[in-house]
Amino acid sequence: MLRVGATPGFYGRWLQGCLKVLFVALAVRTDSPIRDARDLVERMKKDPASLSYGVGTSIGGINHIGAALALKAAGVDIRRMKAVVFNSSSQAAMAVMGGHLDVVASLVNVAVPQVEAGKMRVLAVTAPKRIPGVLAGTPTWKELGLDAVTTNWRMIIGPKALSTVQIAYLDEILARLLNTPEFKDDLKRNDQEPVRIASGGMRRFLEGQNEQFKVELTELGLAK
Predict the structure, then answer these.
(1) What ranges make up the beta strands (E) of the chain?
(2) Which is nearest to 141 in space by CA: 49, 86, 72?
(3) How far apart are CA 133 and CA 112, in angstroms?
(4) Which pLDDT score is estimated for 19?
(5) What is the pTM (predicted TM-score) of this model?
(6) What does the alpha-carbon distance between residue 71 and residue 83 come to, in Å, rounded to a whole number?
(7) How big is the CA angle at 67 (ends 60 and 146), to the nearest 5 degrees?
(8) For 102, which of 14, 51, 126, 158 could close a Cys bridge (C-beta 3.0–4.6 Å)?
(9) Other CB atoms closer than 10 Å to residue 117's CB: what's the count?
């Protein structure tokens, strides 16, 4: 999560951005009365406080935003959402499977094992296109007509003192990393996608992310 209002100088020198991107899934117990994503939206439009959401690990984090963005796009008053914070997304999923909460918002790789075990159903994902494999039959919010693509990402940051030569060298090494069998296997195991943004494009990327999160957090009532 980017700090709202942060300036580019806060981040040091950017080496490689988005080595991998991750998406958020909204999931329920297998026997939940919530039939699908459209049913979820309709219930929330009637009463935004009618369902409880488990999120890890903070209010305003990517999981919370991933749940709220689609609901906002559907016209739900997201400030009235009931979000319960856990120390991890796995704990939030356990609470939903135990019947204590209605929905869990988590990264996809937390939900997939529970789907495989027959314990949960994923209603929708925040990816721009369907995720192959276990969730191939799960719709994206985008295809349901809601502009709610939300991504989490991993990046590498170095100290400001790095020279141009050092950055170029590390850019090359990290670009090669993306093509290794080990890295590709890790992506596949965790339902993630590779995206490379070299150091030269990181300022623009982070500034865009900062503006996006600023808007979303403001609409949640968490930032001004």
Answers:
(1) 13-29, 52-56, 82-86, 103-107, 120-125, 151-158, 197-198
(2) 72
(3) 10
(4) 67
(5) 0.84
(6) 13
(7) 125
(8) 51
(9) 10
Give the tokens for residue 210: 């900062």
Domain 23-135 sits in CATH at 3.40.190.10
Dist CA 39 CA 144 (whole Å): 12
For residue 30, what are its two tokens? 């297998």
- From the number of C-beta atoms within 10 Å of its C-beta (0-12, 13-18, 19+), residue 52 rates as middle
Please say whether the beta carbons of 102 and 28 come within 8 A.
yes
Domain positions in the chain are 12-20+152-219, 23-135
Of the candidates 89, 182, 191, 96, the residue with the CA atom closest to the CA atom of residue 135 = 191
> How many Å apart are CA 83 and CA 67, to the nearest integer?
10
DSSP code, position 3 = P
Q: Which residue has the higher pLDDT, 183 or 26?
A: 26
Half-sphere CA count of 134, side-chain side, radius 13 A? 22
Taking 50 as the threshold, does the pLDDT of residue 136 lie above it?
yes
For residue 203, what are the CA distances in angstroms to 4, 21, 179, 210?
A: 15, 17, 24, 10
The candidate with the shortest Cα–Cα distance to 14, out of 199, 184, 167, is 199
Residue 185 neighbours by CB distance under 10 Å: 10
Amino acid of residue 87: N
The CA distance from 70 to 25, in Å, is 11
- What does the chain come to in residues? 224
Q: What whole-number distance in Å separates Cα of residue 87 and Cα of residue 189?
A: 23
**Residue 152, Cβ neighbours under 10 Å: how many?**
19
